[in-house]
Amino acid sequence: MDCIVWGFDRLDNIGGNDTSLEGAPRLIATPAGKAVLFDGVEDAVLVGDHPLAGAPAFTLEALFRPDGGPFEQRWLHLAEADAVNGEAQSPRLLFEIRVAEDNWYLDAFAAGPGYNKTLAVPEKSFPLGRWYTVQQSFDGKTYRSFVDGVLQAEAPLDFKPQGKGRAAVGMRINRVSHFKGAVKEVRFTPRALSVSDFATLPAGLNG
After folding, report:
1. CB–CB of 73/65 below 8 Å?
2. What b/e sequence results for 114-139 when a residue is b if at least 16 CB atoms lie within 10 Å of its CB, and e otherwise?
3. What mean pLDDT comes out for the span 88-107?
4. Average pLDDT value for residue range 87-109
5. Least enclosed by CB within 10 Å: which of 98, 112, 144, 194?
6. In the chain, which ranges are E strands?
7. Distances from the Cα of 17 to the Cα of 10, 51, 150, angstroms
């Protein structure tokens, strides 16, 4: 399976999947095409797929712009459908951010049977209101997080492939920790990419 790309240039279909909307996320124009803007209060897009289901290794990438808002924002949540524990506590992968004054730092999170790991370094923070790429990867042994291809944190992880499920963009899947900002693209690859293969900011968004 090759890389799956979700482009956020429409709201009714993401990556070939039907969507459902909460609040009023809206399309905005950027110098590199359309993106979806979230208000940090109630906006979200729910997508009926977990593109990394079954993958023993992975790279999860996103192109986004954090604009401020609450301290804790869980803005991309891949959840295994789990009738016993409920999707919020089932095996999951998340991109989160923490906002402190005019800056933010990345929080990457993976959890499932026998593993639970947060990668966050508050000292590595970045200005709000700009476009960034973020990445998290697992190569079979080590879980890593990156901002614009620069390593933020890494740790060993006893990861196990996750099952089929769905995704929430703009909030945690149980409707908390909403995101204030914009998302342009998310990429899913069922192997650990090298940094040289990461997606980069398109022209017009890099300053």
Report:
1. no
2. eeebebbeeeebbebeebbbbbbbbb
3. 94
4. 93
5. 194
6. 4-7, 13-14, 17-22, 26-30, 33-39, 44-47, 58-66, 72-80, 92-100, 103-112, 115-120, 126-127, 132-138, 142-147, 150-156, 165-169, 180-189
7. 11, 11, 31
Token pair for 75: 């803005």
Per-residue tokens: 39: 């208000």
Domains within the chain, CATH numbers bracketed: 4-194 (2.60.120.200)
| Angle at CA of residue 138, ends 193 and 148, nearest 5° | 55
φ and ψ at residue 49, rounded to 5 degrees:
-160, 150
User: Can you give the pLDDT at residue 81?
Assistant: 84
Q: For 62-66, 80-84, 153-157, 159-163, which range has the lowest pLDDT when averaged over its residues?
A: 80-84
Q: Please, which residues bridge with residue 4 across strands? A: 188
pTM of this prediction?
Answer: 0.95
> Which two structure tokens, joined as six digits, stand for 64?
């986004």
Q: Over the stretch 35-90, which tens digit does the pLDDT of each residue have?
A: 999 999 999 999 999 999 999 999 999 999 999 999 999 999 999 986 556 566 78
Residue type, 4: I
